[in-house]
Amino acid sequence: KNIVILISGGGSNMAAIVKAAKQQDWERRYGARVAAVVSNKADAQGLVFAKDHGIATEVLNHKQFDSREAFDAQLAQVVDRYTPTLVVLAGFMRILTPGFVQHFEGRMVNIHPSLLPAFTGLHTHQRAIDAGCKFAGCSVHGVTAELDVGPILDQAAVPVLPDDTAQTLAARVLTQEHVIYPRAVAAFLQKH
Ligand code: GRF
């Protein structure tokens, strides 16, 4: 069972999943492995981590395509080279077309830095602080055509502290992302 992870930047969630796969021996337990890391940014730092861990990497520059559909069609072809059981969006900062989402329907997940259904979209931490939330957090969900909406697979909550800034809250949430994402992927692999 191949897992393909899509990133756009640091890839800390991807790294957490790669580490969990090794430490928890997903190969033996689920017959699963991280087969490739794909990025829309050639300078995504996560690509270095993937290469260092002997994982195939692919870069698809969305600027080289004249439409979102054309990019997504090529992206689907690249991802399909690895016959994925599961496609993991991890800090992948692209809005995907319905066609791409349908193609991977039921086997594509995402992590979003809020307690969905609250705060879909961007700047989630600042919005939680501005709203006076006492808790914030992160959610792993199945990807559907509607942005940041889909069946919630796992979540973690963290306190919002009185002196929090978006940055301090983001750091606290990110730590929990690295807990729930590997946990959610393992649960998916157990079921499929
Ligand atoms: C994280 O805040 C995650 O919630 C969002 O992208 C950010 C960076 O993730 N999806 P990563 O370090 O690139 O995995």
Automatic annotation (TrEMBL):
Residues flagged as site, Raises pKa of active site His? D148
Q: Which Pfam families does this entry report, sorted A to Z?
A: Formyl_trans_N (PF00551)
Q: Which UniProt keywords apply?
A: Purine biosynthesis, Transferase
Domain named Formyl transferase N-terminal is located at: 1-185
Q: Which domain of life is it from?
A: Bacteria
Q: In which pathway does it act?
A: Purine metabolism; IMP biosynthesis via de novo pathway; N(2)-formyl-N(1)-(5-phospho-D-ribosyl)glycinamide from N(1)-(5-phospho-D-ribosyl)glycinamide (10-formyl THF route): step 1/1
Q: Where is the active site?
A: H112
Keyword hit for Transferase = yes
* Residues engaged in binding N(1)-(5-phospho-beta-D-ribosyl)glycinamide: G11, S12, N13
Q: Does the keyword Transferase apply?
A: yes
Q: Which GO terms describe its molecular function?
A: phosphoribosylglycinamide formyltransferase activity
Recorded hits in InterPro entries, A to Z, give:
Formyl_transf_N, Formyl_transf_N_sf, GART
Catalytic activity, as annotated: N(1)-(5-phospho-beta-D-ribosyl)glycinamide + (6R)-10-formyltetrahydrofolate = N(2)-formyl-N(1)-(5-phospho-beta-D-ribosyl)glycinamide + (6S)-5,6,7,8-tetrahydrofolate + H(+)
Residues binding (6R)-10-formyltetrahydrofolate are R68, M93, R94, I95, L96, N110
Give the Enzyme Commission number: 2.1.2.2
Tell me which family the UniProt entry assigns to this protein.
Answer: Belongs to the GART family.
Q: Describe its function.
A: Catalyzes the transfer of a formyl group from 10-formyltetrahydrofolate to 5-phospho-ribosyl-glycinamide (GAR), producing 5-phospho-ribosyl-N-formylglycinamide (FGAR) and tetrahydrofolate.
The molecule here is called Phosphoribosylglycinamide formyltransferase
| Gene, per the UniProt record | purN
